UniProtKB/TrEMBL annotation:
GO terms for molecular function: oxidoreductase activity. Belongs to the shaker potassium channel beta subunit family. Keywords: NADP, Oxidoreductase. InterPro entries: AKR, K_chnl_volt-dep_bsu_KCNAB-rel, NAD(P)_OxRdtase_dom_sf, NADP_OxRdtase_dom. It holds the Pfam family Aldo_ket_red. Residues 15-314 form the NADP-dependent oxidoreductase domain. This is Aldo/keto reductase family protein. One of its GO terms (cellular component) is cytosol. It comes from the Bacteria. The keyword Secreted does not apply. The keyword NADP applies.
Length: 336
């Protein structure tokens, strides 16, 4: 496993980071989820990312149980706050001081730890003053409940404003967690340059485009049984933007490039996002331990410029690059 600094901090994280978004507590039984975490640890992954909203807090509980007994100093544990949790009361959502201060305590209890290494704003809250949010994050850090703070799916302007307030408050906003893959490059024109300027790294989710970049979805064919595209608990909704025959046809053209590089299609996709110097880690999930073992082989891989160009040529105009998509896909009001 290779390790990279997160932002301009001294914190090193594994460049393959294990995430339990759509699996733990929902799609995968707890024993299987624990086996995947053990496989990640055995493969050298030390960084684990979750969120309170995943399976309505169950994912944090599963991860806490799976990591129990590990030396805490050897791990980097990340979680997030914003989306509705619990019974969905009027204050069980957003980035108000009340929700943040209550949520961090709940997350720490479920994760069975005294602190998280990174506490992230899971989206931007349009209904809470940014000053209130950042002050609450600063207090969480000063209380020793989080070491650093980050954001997820914020625009470049939002990141700049949040970073400035964090600096004034004496805390470090060091990370951004956006969607990023060969097919979804909306961060490249604005978020990445702003982050590079401010000393912020990307921890990217869905580097395999919810499984599309593995090549298992074939144009003109029904999705394989049991795949994410058939999961009505959330997977099918997230993947549908890529389930277009033109996209799937282009993705099939990546197979010879992967073969030439000696990689699987999934490994090629993960290695591709890690070529971006502003990316500190690629988030990967798993429903089976063998998926973990396959994904970690992308660590430390350097793709030749010719391979990077061949990928661009193969995908062509199906790549989404519009930086406005970050704001367009963000909640305009707090979800209920």
């Amino acid at each position: 496993m290779d390790f990279r600094y997160l932002g301009n901090s001294g914190l090193k994280i594994s460049e393959i980071t294990y995430g339990n978004w759509l699996t733990h507590g929902s799609q995968v039984e707890n024993d299987a989820a624990t086996a995947c975490v053990r496989a990640a640890l055995d493969a050298g992954i030390s960084t684990f990312d979750t969120a309170d909203v995943y399976a309505n807090t169950k994912a944090e509980t599963v991860l806490g149980e799976a990591l129990k007994g590990e030396r805490r100093q050897d791990l980097e544990i990340f979680t997030k706050v914003y989306w509705p949790t619990g019974p969905g009361g009027k204050n069980d959502v957003g980035l108000s001081r009340k929700h943040i201060m209550e949520s961090i305590d709940g997350s720490l209890s479920r994760l069975q730890t005294d602190y998280v290494d990174l506490y992230q704003a899971h989206r931007y809250d349009t209904e809470t003053p940014l000053e209130e949010t950042m002050q609450a994050f600063a207090d969480v850090v000063r209380q020793g409940k989080a070491l650093y703070v980050g954001v997820s799916e914020w625009t470049a302007d939002q990141i700049r404003a949040g970073h400035a307030m964090a600096k004034d408050l004496g805390i470090q906003l060091i990370s951004s967690q956006p969607q990023y893959s060969m097919l979804w490059r909306v961060i490249e024109d604005e978020v990445v340059p702003t982050s590079e300027e401010l000393g912020i790294s990307q921890i990217v989710w869905s580097p395999i485009a919810q499984g599309v970049l593995t090549g298992k979805y074939k144009p003109g064919e029904a999705p394989p049984a049991g795949s994410r595209a058939t999961d009505e608990k959330g997977g099918a909704d997230m993947i549908k933007r890529f389930m277009d025959d033109t996209v799937l046809e282009r993705v099939q053209k990546l197979q010879p490039i992967a073969d030439e590089a000696g990689l699987s299609m999934a490994q090629l996709a993960i290695a591709w996002v890690l070529q971006n110097d502003n990316v500190a880690a690629a988030l990967v999930g798993a429903s089976r331990p063998e998926q973990v073992h396959d994904n970690v082989k992308a660590a430390g891989v350097r793709l030749e410029p010719s391979a990077m160009q061949a990928i661009d040529d193969a995908l062509g105009d199906v790549v989404e690059r519009d930086p406005g998509k970050t704001a367009e896909t963000a909640p305009q009001t707090r979800p209920v």
